[in-house]
Design a protein that fits this description.
Chain A: Keywords: Signal. The complex is a heterodimer. By secondary structure, chain A is of the alpha/beta class. Chain A contains 19 helices and 17 strands. Chain A folds into two domains: 198 residues, D-Maltodextrin-Binding Protein, domain 2, CATH 3.40.190; 240 residues, Periplasmic binding protein-like II (D-Maltodextrin-Binding Protein, domain 2). The longest helix of chain A has 28 residues. By secondary structure, chain B is of the alpha+beta class.
């Protein structure tokens, strides 16, 4: 009896509130602090990010949420992929699947995927023009998906890439070789420096040949290909109306090949552990390009294989670009989407997201997680300083630097990301792994040759050929096209 | 709503309400007393308890049977270590982080650990080797943030602690706080998960296997890295190599995962409650409350409570099985129930069994018992609605009954009382009967009213009434001739009513018409119309509480009659002038405002020839003579003058308001001129002018009040009459003063004579031999304003030729007074002074004799010396005595006329020596000689002697010595109104003197 009455009451209230707010163009619903609405947030934050997020959720629940009748529950769902699959299971009401969450974290392509069933709330209904204007326009643009370009992804925390380096060990190298930081501004310069580093480290143990160390690594090869090609003048994945066309300009790809594949097989670049930050921790790499969010993973000390450690200082630099290219940086990071339910729940979810992205709070999250704030207002170094001062926690120096550099990047470089499209995750996978797999496979062969007594340079030269490029190129293009065939 | 006050409504409403109330109470008693409510409540508790119990069971199973099922793994690992060190020829102490053996061993064991982690569905697994016992220890610690899914390539894992070589090999990402080894300082925070089981294993070697298992409540591993770490829960077990503890292995459960295991959603549909996994360390908690450290929590409620939510304070006392009150944190919405179920994680005597692990389900009272409250509310709601419906129904019914009555009342109110009322049918028998009766009654009343009006019409009395009441405040009832009488136009009326505002307007206008009023009596006389058409209305207003009644009566006839009477009363019939009375009223009014009078003249006019005309030509011509004179006086300017005919031929006029006397004099001249020119024609063909004498007195010079002025004018006129008839003379104070005394005395004399206004005093005359009283002399004592002495009276009477009346007065009055005194009863004589040349008339003498016959023999007539005695008259006087033998006395002998000659001619019985002879006789030998001679003479002629005016003892002694017979004087006795004996000492003195004399002789 009670349920029914409550239901009809809520229904009536909603109907009324819709009527009342309809003319203003922004939806709202009546909330009751005595009978709060629970909004579940599924995310894949881990470590410090999760801590920071949970802290803010608690803060919301005990302040704004308590006042207004909203309870937010955060659940970790492992990885982006895991989360997406869990959401799909829930929506499909699969046996054993959890209840459909209120808010999910995700990238444009995963959200796009989930929204195929019309499951995502169009946020334009809940946010006024003025409210939308407060967000950085490109973030809002990125959140507009599919037909009618409805805003489906709420920008909550964005990131870009930065260049991070073990300054302590660099200083030794630089002193010895005269290597200059200026070289690190361009990709070509990085390649050159990496070669120098390899040779210098190799030379330190004259008795052991070809034991040079890699200088540099990348966490996201896909980003390199996408942003790199953009810098070189083409849009690799051109999206129109959710459909993608691939601009596989051979010259551009050759340049990209030359600046990643070639240094990799030569041992100048490396990728050993799961993440490049892991490699930096154990001294396998001196520098890498990674997401701003990985800044917190950048080690404070480096362990060698003998478990000896020495403290290091980090140096954060803008991500290197092609010398002749346009200055583009990647725009990435997940947003949050609201899954369709009832108006009250949807409204509550949006209210939480609005609260979460308020400038000060967004900055607070940023300084704890390495994400970038999403409001124009928050993208302010002074405010960042204040947020750091107010955070009450010890913010690692490198994180602070990272954000400062990232803030600069945001203002000095164009941020680029391709719009979501059908089969984007497949394409992403090709971009991420195709070249990396090729490197790993060829390295294996090269290592065999080296083990067989051939010098590394010689062995590598055998792979740094036009033929090898051609064969990869055609495979790469084929693989890309294949992703679209599967659709 | 006036009609709701009615008792009819109450009479209907109250019984219905009482019935409703009884019903309500009955309902409440049935529902609340039958246990239904308690049952509902109990049910809610039970359902909640079941849920918590079920969940705690599941959780206990998971914790004990699944997650912590690592006993066999620990053995396997122990065996692995054992065989490895055997194989390598080392001891467990060599297994330090920096040893290459260790990496090798760990690499071997890592697979087993990851397998255990995945199989037990936990979020982490660890193995710590004690090595050489230093804080830096080798080991592995892997995490799987989502144990429910499994990636074949370990991509879902993170290494928290592991040598880098192993993580690279296993392609496991490094945790933010990754370290290649463990840094565990005993006693530091977050190291219990290692040291508790390890130490216990060493200290109590008898314990084996799961007995040493240790559940470490929520903690963070940041203790050994300084980085941020999320909270975790661990279970750890010692690992043995060759029967000796060489390390610890365990599993980890992170909060996210734990929270998913205690889904608070199942507690209530609304997702309000919370589950809390909590632990109470052994030995903690005292007093009435127990404190539980929160390990994991789910659901909204716990986040919404106020206060520190990491520790729950729960009352020890349970009010229902498993239910305790949550004391802190607390809810804004009221009490919070907590249902506590123990998790039996340890065997009874296990070393850590003192830690109490519980699953607590909390729910706010409001939500837990929502159905109960809902039901309670529903019951009360039904009750309220029932009562409301009852009241509403009662009101509707009451209205259904009262409405027709109200309608009836309204119709009655609006009905014209003057005509029969038509109420119409209301289709309710009782009320229709009532209205029928009212109609009949009103018909009769109207009939009666008509009859009354008809009767009033017949009497010819014009009467109207109006009634104003508070109840009908907008209009005023007016009946009969009310409006006509008060000149209110008929067309302003509606039926018998006049709007109050109109009435007020007219009433205000009536003020101007007010002639007389007596506000207290509410009586007003109003005058309408002009001249010939004048009419008067009397308005009587009676104010009562809430009601004003006014009755208007036509009183024109009455007023006209009254005016006529007033005219007749005030005006002289013959002349039409004011009569005396009206004159006085008018003059009084004039004198009220003395300022306006300025100079005034009071004129007394007396026609001169009236008596002549009357006597000669008859009264008709006399009247004509008067009328003619009056016409002249009337023709005067009536302003500033009052003219009246006083009587007969006397007129009185008062002119005032003049600036000077000449104006008035000029007016008088005009009058006299007119008199002269106005002639009356007499039957004998002749004609005479009017002739009048007039006296004039000036205001304010002669007198300030009109009485005085009239007297002066009269005096002046009187003077004219006496001297110069036909003239006008102004009052002269000097001559008035002169004449006025005489005039006054004359009047007094007349009064004395008319009313006998004299008194008598009696002076004793005593015997000179023994001092006894022989007689009294009656001495006249007149006492009016101007006449104070007998001499004055006599002089006046003489001048007015009224001595005869004095003679009569003396005898009658003197005798009358004497006869009333006590001494009259003795045999003393009474001496009365007679006027020598006057006698009473025969008639008077007879009357005197008749009246005082008893005293005549004792009467002595004393002849006074003022008038010459007349022999004839003396004879007549002797007749006063009648048959009695009267005696005479000669008064004042030796003075005036009473000399020796009269003594000879009269031959009196007594001779009274005048006081001039007696005074100082004892010093004057001449007087002694003369008196002695006289005494001798009298004796010879048979007359007794009386000495008058004896004023001292020497005179008395001398006189006694000389042989006097009687004594009279102040020394002996003063004249008194109360005659009696003389003082005893005087009598003794006389007696002694006389005795001496005898002796002497």
């Amino acid at each position: 009896m009670k349920r029914k009455r409550m239901g009809s009451l809520v229904g009536a209230t909603l109907a009324l509130s819709l009527v009342l707010t309809g003319c203003q163009g922004v939806k709202s619903a009546k909330l009751d602090p005595k009978n709060p609405v629970t909004v579940t947030v599924w995310h894949y934050y881990a470590g410090g990010q999760q801590e920071a997020f949970n802290k803010l959720v608690s803060e919301f629940n005990s302040s704004e949420g308590l006042e207004r009748g909203i309870v937010v529950e955060a659940e970790n769902h492992g990885t982006v992929e895991q989360l997406a699959s869990d959401v799909k299971d829930s929506l499909a009401k699969k046996v054993g699947a959890a209840e459909v969450p209120g808010i999910i974290c995700g990238y444009g392509d995963t959200i796009y995927d989930i929204d195929k069933g019309g499951n995502i709330v169009s946020l334009d209904e809940y946010l006024s023009e003025d409210e939308l204007k407060e967000y950085i326009p490109s973030y809002i643009e990125e959140g507009r998906l599919g037909e009618g370009d409805k805003l489906k992804i709420f920008p909550t925390a964005k990131s870009t890439e930065i260049f991070m380096m073990n300054k302590t060990d660099w200083d030794v190298f630089a002193e010895a070789t005269g290597a200059s930081l200026d070289k690190l501004e361009t990709i070509e310069g990085v390649v050159e420096t990496a070669k120098g580093y390899y040779e210098w480290t190799d030379a330190r143990t004259p008795d052991v040949p070809d034991d040079g160390k890699a200088f540099f690594g990348r966490d996201a090869v896909a980003n390199y290909l996408i942003v790199g090609s953009r810098q070189l003048g083409i849009e690799l994945c051109k999206v129109k109306d959710g459909k993608v066309t691939f601009n596989t300009d051979k010259e551009v790809l050759r340049k990209l090949w030359d600046c990643y594949y070639v240094p990799s097989i030569n041992g100048y670049f490396g990728a050993y552990g799961k993440f490049r930050s892991d490699d930096a921790k154990v001294g396998d790499l001196l520098a890498f390009v990674g997401s701003t969010t990985s800044a917190s993973y950048f080690p404070k000390e480096v362990f060698n294989e003998e478990n000896e450690s020495h403290p290091i200082e980090a140096l954060v630099l803008p991500v290197p670009v092609f010398a002749d290219g346009e200055k583009y940086a990647v725009q990435q990071g997940a947003g949050m989407a609201v899954i369709k339910s009832d108006a009250q729940k949807e409204y509550a979810a949006v209210e939480f997201l609005k609260w979460f992205t308020q400038a000060d709070r967004n900055l607070e999250f940023a300084v704890s997680s390495g994400y970038l704030p999403v409001k124009t207002e928050a993208l302010d170094k002074n405010k960042l300083e204040t947020a750091i001062a107010n955070s009450g926690e010890q913010i690692p120096e490198n994180l602070k630097e990272t954000l400062e550099i990232a803030f600069d990047t945001c203002s000095s470089q164009k941020l680029y990301t391709n719009r979501p499209f059908e089969g984007a995750s497949g394409v992403r996978s090709v971009l991420e792994y195709n070249m990396a797999d090729k490197i790993n496979a060829d390295l294996e062969e090269i290592n065999k040759l080296v083990a067989g007594g051939m010098s590394r340079a010689e062995a590598a030269a055998g792979y740094d050929t036009d033929e090898n490029f051609e064969s990869w190129y055609s495979d790469f293009c084929q693989k890309l096209e294949d992703t679209q065939k599967e659709q | 709503m006036n009609h709701f006050k009615g008792s009819l409504l109450q009479r209907i409403l109250i019984p219905i309400l009482v019935v409703m109330l009884i019903e309500g109470i009955l309902l409440c008693v049935v529902v609340f007393n039958s246990g239904t409510m308690e049952g509902l409540k109990g049910n809610a508790y039970d359902v909640f308890n079941e849920k918590v119990s079920g969940r705690s069971g599941t959780l206990e199973n998971d914790m004990v049977g699944r997650w912590s099922a690592i006993e066999s793994a620990a053995e396997t690992i122990g065996d692995g270590i054992e065989s490895f060190i055997e194989g390598e020829g080392i001891t467990t102490a060599d297994l330090t982080p920096d040893s290459s053996y260790t990496s090798k061993l760990l690499e071997n064991l890592s697979e087993e650990l990851i397998f255990r982690m995945r199989r037990n569905a936990v979020t982490g697994v660890f193995l710590i080797l004690d090595g050489d016992g230093r804080d830096k220890k080798a080991g592995l610690y892997f995490r799987d943030s989502d144990p429910l899914t499994e990636a074949s390539d370990n991509s879902d894992l993170q290494a928290v602690r592991a040598p880098a070589s192993i993580t690279k090999k296993l392609n496991i990402a490094l945790n933010t706080n990754w370290l290649p080894y463990f840094q565990l300082t005993e006693g530091a925070d977050g190291t219990e998960y290692y040291y508790e089981p390890f130490r216990t294993a060493i200290e109590r070697p008898e314990l084996k296997g799961t007995e040493l298992g240790y559940w470490c409540p929520a903690f963070s591993m940041h203790g050994d890295t300084g980085g941020r770490e999320s909270m975790i829960l661990t279970y750890s077990l010692p690992v043995y190599s060759e029967g000796i503890p060489c390390g610890v292995m365990g599993i980890e459960l992170n909060m996210d995962y734990l929270v998913k295991q205690i889904p608070a959603r199942e507690l209530s549909e609304d997702n309000y409650g919370s589950y809390i996994l909590a632990c109470k360390k052994s030995g903690s908690g005292d007093g009435e409350a127990e404190e539980y450290t929160v390990v994991a929590r789910s659901g909204a409620l716990i986040n919404q409570l106020e206060g520190q939510s990491d520790v729950l304070s729960i009352s020890k006392e349970s009010y229902r099985k498993n239910f305790h009150s949550l004391l802190s944190p607390s809810s804004r919405q009221g009490a919070v129930h907590s249902c506590i179920h123990d998790l039996n994680l340890y065997e009874r005597n296990a070393p850590f069994s003192g830690d109490r692990w519980v699953l607590i389900g909390i729910e706010e009272d409001y939500h837990l018992l929502s159905f109960f409250y809902e039901f309670e509310r529903a019951i009360l709601f039904i009750l309220a609605v029932t009562i409301l419906i009852g009241v509403a129904a009662a009101i509707i019914v009451a209205r259904a009954v009262t409405k027709p009555i109200e309608t009836l009342t309204y119709k009655l109110k609006m009905a014209d009382p003057g005509s029969p009322i038509r109420l119409g049918e209301l289709k309710i028998d009782e009320i229709d009967k009532l209205s029928g009766t009212i109609e009949n009654l009103s018909r009769e009343v109207a009939d009666n009213a008509h009859k009354l009006e008809a009767i009033l019409d017949m009497t010819g009395v014009s009467v109207g009434a109006c009634e104003y009441t508070d109840r009908a405040e907008k209009k005023v009832y007016c009946s009969g001739d009310f409006c006509r009488l008060l000149d209110i136009p008929e067309e302003e009326m509606t039926g018998s009513y006049l709007p109050t505002s109109v009435m007020k307007k007219h009433m205000a206008e009536l003020k101007a018409r007010q002639v007389e009023r007596d506000r207290e009596a509410g009586l007003y006389i109003l005058k309408f119309g002009k001249a010939e058409e004048e009419r008067w209305v009397r308005l009587k207003v009676i104010s009562e509480k809430g009601r004003i009644l006014a009755v208007a009566t036509d009183m024109t006839q009455e007023m006209q009659e009254k005016q006529k009477i007033e005219h007749d009363r005030d005006f002289d019939l013959l002349t039409g002038l004011y009569n005396r009375r009206a004159f006085y009223r008018q003059i009084e009014e004039v004198f009220m405002n003395k300022k306006r009078m300025a100079i005034g003249a009071m004129i007394m006019i007396d026609l001169d020839n009236l008596k002549y005309v009357n006597d000669t030509y008859g009264h008709d011509y006399g009247d004509e003579y008067i009328r003619t004179a009056a016409r002249v006086l009337q023709s005067l300017d009536t302003r500033n003058s009052v003219v009246a005919r006083l009587s007969g031929d006397e007129f009185l006029a008062f002119f005032y308001g003049s600036g000077n006397r000449d104006t008035v004099r000029h007016r008088m001249d005009q009058i006299y001129e007119m008199f002269k020119n106005t002639k009356i024609h007499l039957p004998d063909g002749t004609s005479i002018p009017v002739r009048a004498s007039a006296g004039m007195a000036w205001y304010p010079d002669d007198g300030e009040n009109y009485d005085e002025l009239i007297r002066y004018a009269d005096f002046a006129m009187y003077m004219v009459k006496k001297t110069n008839k036909g003239a006008v003379v102004e009052f002269n104070l000097e001559s008035y003063s002169k004449e006025s005394y005489l005039l006054q005395c004359k009047e007094e004399l007349n009064t004395i004579l008319e009313k006998g206004l004299v008194d008598y005093a009696f002076q004793p005359i005593v015997d000179a031999r023994d001092g006894s009283v022989y007689a009294y002399e009656a001495l006249m004592r007149p006492n009016t304003e101007n006449i104070k002495s007998p001499d004055a009276l006599l002089a006046l009477a003489r001048s007015q030729s009224k001595l005869q009346q004095i003679e009569k007065l003396t005898f009658f009055k003197g005798m009358e007074i004497f006869s009333k005194k006590e001494v009259a009863k003795t045999d003393c004589r009474i001496f009365l002074n007679s006027i020598s040349n006057q006698v009473m008339t025969d008639k008077e003498i007879k009357e005197f004799q008749m009246k005082y016959s008893a005293y005549l023999s004792r009467l002595v007539i004393e002849f006074t010396e003022e008038e010459r005695p007349d022999a004839e008259l003396t004879k007549v006087k002797m007749r006063y005595f009648g048959d009695a033998k009267g005696m005479t006395a000669l008064d004042d002998f030796g003075e005036g006329y009473n000399g020796e000659s009269i003594l000879l001619s009269m031959n009196p019985d007594f001779v009274k020596f005048d006081r001039s002879l007696i005074k100082n006789i004892h010093e004057d030998s001449k007087k002694q000689d003369l008196v002695a001679g006289l005494i001798a003479y009298c004796r010879e002629n048979g007359a007794k002697t009386i000495a008058e005016g004896v004023e001292c003892s020497m005179e008395m002694d001398m006189l006694i010595g000389m042989g006097i017979d009687y004594l009279q004087g102040y020394y002996i006795g003063r004249p008194t109104h109360f005659p009696g004996d003389i003082p005893e000492e005087i009598r003794q003195e006389i007696f002694q003197a006389a005795k001496t004399e005898i002796d002497f002789s």
